[in-house]
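Justification of computing resources. Each target in the renewal requires a structure prediction run like the one illustrated here; the chain below, 175 residues long, is used simply to show the kind of job we budget for.
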Amino acid sequence: MLDYYSTQLLQHILVSYLPRIHLAEERGYSNPSDKYHWLYEELHCRVVFLRGVLLFLDALPRFMVVGTEALQYVTSYVGKLFAVDWVSSLRNEKTEQHPYFQDNNPYWTEFQEVLDHIDDGYDLGDLPQLYVDLSEYVVRASRLYLQIRECSIHAIDRDKFEALLSRKPEFSQAG
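Resulting structure tokens:
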């Protein structure tokens, strides 16, 4: 059984960042010379990221004619999230392992859970269910991406991060 976070989680996270970025703008943090400009930049990055993900997921059904193509669109999109230099640079050179792409990271294991759900026997012809599962794949990839940013770039949520990204799944469905 796959527990779905759904795009509602991403919308919830976005809604929590919007007042903060507006406050940062009001306080002048958007000025590059301000000592808290880094906070504004990180909030801006996350807001732009979340809006982009939601737009991608909103547009995806229009391109879902064949299940294999939809799967390729989504895996390509997610692959680009983790291909950026700063994510790649976190890899341990001695062990060749990435600190966040490990089974001891719950964000990683939940991301992998969706891949396990969409296995070789998955019905790619059931486009409505495929859309739901591909959306969940992107949602969980987004959670992992935000965790990496929070832990390795700038911790802007600190104690609230886990609560923000670990809301109980909204829906449950037998898989």
